[in-house]
């Protein structure tokens, strides 16, 4: 069933966590279906030698562990393989027909081809093993022509589904899913990029069309993409179709929902697929599970859904649903799980919900429903999960919820609930394990504990973010099973009590205490916890940075007052993927111990007082760092030039230091580099045309250094080797660059010409890799971080460029900002700038530009900041409703200009040309866009230093 706020990236991480905690021994899903058709007993003919040889080669392909040794204890040469554990033979001459190695915890680098010599196999189960991200073999499966059941789920295979599987025309059941338990908590996993989780990907191959006998298709938890094939609706025996947790796209044929034998249709969490729910006739009565949650389904929910009288689980959590909820849902008396979303669904919780007395799960999320929680919910006494998430419910949380004693999950976050909530409210809910009250107007307090012997729930997950908590909750003293604790964005002050750390269990937890007023962690320098994620950022913590003694994946200590790192901290960080300690008071040299953290992917030590040079071992990149941020420290010296081949750097930010010398030429080994920010240093070098080999480079910031020479080479051969087709951000401001800007050079900036269809850079990957840069934007100093890739700009201000502005700049249609101020540019402003339909800020001030202001500029709908001051422009300023919004400061220092907004009137009598816009669209300021955000991994975080830069004369 769907879950409030579930995200696929989070699912992948939790899968890693759960598999690390315990090796799931999942029983084969379809063993019963197979064995019921076969007579038990030992076959009269022993295993043939070639069959035993193939099985032994398969055995040798697995890494020997204590677990695998047990699994293969009976697999000995010279014995009858038909009697080996997990192996059965048919009555067809000693041929293996059944092989079950599911849930054995086996490890292998790939699937052994000898498996395909077992051509009589009818049942094959390799589920819940570890094949280390290897691809399924492209050939071999087509040889297993007798196969009826194939289960490769949860086995860390990657790549595409091989075409050979499409030739298995006898298949009845195909399971390529990634199954795991505890899915109720997976939406809360921190955004950590994980490499070890693999899944099959790509489109579903058309050869599956030949599998006419399929009755079960389970492909959940993969990376499958492309359209969902129409032929699924033509599989006459299909009863189960599970495609959830993938990346399918396109339109879903309505005929799938009217398939008469289908019992289960689960499309959950495929954001790219769209469609609508058709009319359900009385003959469509087989459906027991229907889930289109977290898809792009739209339209109204049909009244005819009441004809699905066998429904037990109904998931309608697609936020584009609209209209009224049909009361016919209230007639589905067998319904045990109901999930509904839709921002267009408004009103109150409908009264027909009271009729669904068999409900164990009730969820309204991401919806337009409002008002108090109605009293009839108290009649749903079988409820195990109540989720009223991210809607507009209001009033106090009703007291009768504490009487729904079967509740295991209560999710009431992101509403308008008010009042004081005492934790003793939940005392009677002894089965409660998951509680989230975050983001309301509640004040959560301990409550009077008048009976210390009274039973209370043992929570596994507790989230109380934005709950106006002022002291560390005392009710947590008795909570010793919590594996997820979020008390972020409160006003908790003082020290974290020592008992708080002692209460955490001896297996990894997630602990989020960010944005409070904590002054001490109570332990130093090591914490007695195991933590997948420990977030202490944005507090007032001092002294040693506390390090968990157990394994951790993500540690965030940023924005505190920490001054020291323990001397031997690296010995406890072997599993750490992300280490963030920016904006503290750390000083001295950067510890070489960071080079010993072998799994680190992101290291952020920005905004501290580190001095000395960058450790050579960090730049050598032997430990796989992908994002390295050392900005705004006091680093000196030169960049080490020892970067190894197959360098893993994707984002480098060394801005705001005192680093001199040249850029290291060994950066060419970083083929995945997408972000390089070395602004505000002392680097003296030529423009790095040699970086054109970095084919993924999208952000290049060289501002405020001592670069010199021409950006555009003089010889034709050099010009051809100075292409940067993937650049979206180019900042060369405040250097000593000179020479002219050529037409050809602009036309080679391909990603500024058309929208790139490439995957966003590392700034997007699961929200981890964030770059921050200070740009002069619309007269403000603006710090932009997070998804900088959404902004396309060129800044060459404060250099010594000369000559005219090439007309070819007009082809850079994706530009949002252009700053060419404070150079020696001459000639007219090219009218082709009027083609930059996305531009919002244009600064050409302090140059020697002449001629008139092109009328075309007045038609730029989104242009909201314009600075043409201190040039040699003349003539009438274009008049348009849009141009009238610009201050007179945009045109100062041009003695030949006249007309509004300047006080100087034009002496000619000709009527001014008034430019009318082709749309009435209001100018959209990109700064307001940056605040809005738009879903998974999108949006900006910006901070503006409110110091308007008044133009001053050179």
Automatic annotation (TrEMBL):
<dbReference type="InterPro" id="IPR013210">
    <property type="entry name" value="LRR_N_plant-typ"/>
</dbReference>
<keyword id="KW-1003">Cell membrane</keyword>
<dbReference type="GO" id="GO:0005886">
    <property type="term" value="C:plasma membrane"/>
</dbReference>
<keyword id="KW-0677">Repeat</keyword>
<dbReference type="Pfam" id="PF08263">
    <property type="entry name" value="LRRNT_2"/>
</dbReference>
<keyword id="KW-0812">Transmembrane</keyword>
<protein>
    <recommendedName>
        <fullName>Leucine-rich repeat-containing N-terminal plant-type domain-containing protein</fullName>
    </recommendedName>
</protein>
<keyword id="KW-1133">Transmembrane helix</keyword>
<dbReference type="Pfam" id="PF13516">
    <property type="entry name" value="LRR_6"/>
</dbReference>
<dbReference type="InterPro" id="IPR001611">
    <property type="entry name" value="Leu-rich_rpt"/>
</dbReference>
<comment type="similarity">
    <text>Belongs to the RLP family.</text>
</comment>
<dbReference type="InterPro" id="IPR032675">
    <property type="entry name" value="LRR_dom_sf"/>
</dbReference>
<keyword id="KW-0472">Membrane</keyword>
<feature type="signal peptide">
    <location>
        <begin position="1"/>
        <end position="33"/>
    </location>
</feature>
<dbReference type="InterPro" id="IPR055414">
    <property type="entry name" value="LRR_R13L4/SHOC2-like"/>
</dbReference>
<dbReference type="Pfam" id="PF00560">
    <property type="entry name" value="LRR_1"/>
</dbReference>
<feature type="domain" description="Leucine-rich repeat-containing N-terminal plant-type">
    <location>
        <begin position="49"/>
        <end position="89"/>
    </location>
</feature>
<feature type="domain" description="Disease resistance R13L4/SHOC-2-like LRR">
    <location>
        <begin position="304"/>
        <end position="478"/>
    </location>
</feature>
<feature type="transmembrane region" description="Helical">
    <location>
        <begin position="926"/>
        <end position="948"/>
    </location>
</feature>
<dbReference type="Pfam" id="PF23598">
    <property type="entry name" value="LRR_14"/>
</dbReference>
<dbReference type="InterPro" id="IPR046956">
    <property type="entry name" value="RLP23-like"/>
</dbReference>
<keyword id="KW-0675">Receptor</keyword>
<keyword id="KW-0433">Leucine-rich repeat</keyword>
<keyword id="KW-0325">Glycoprotein</keyword>
<keyword id="KW-0732">Signal</keyword>
<dbReference type="InterPro" id="IPR003591">
    <property type="entry name" value="Leu-rich_rpt_typical-subtyp"/>
</dbReference>
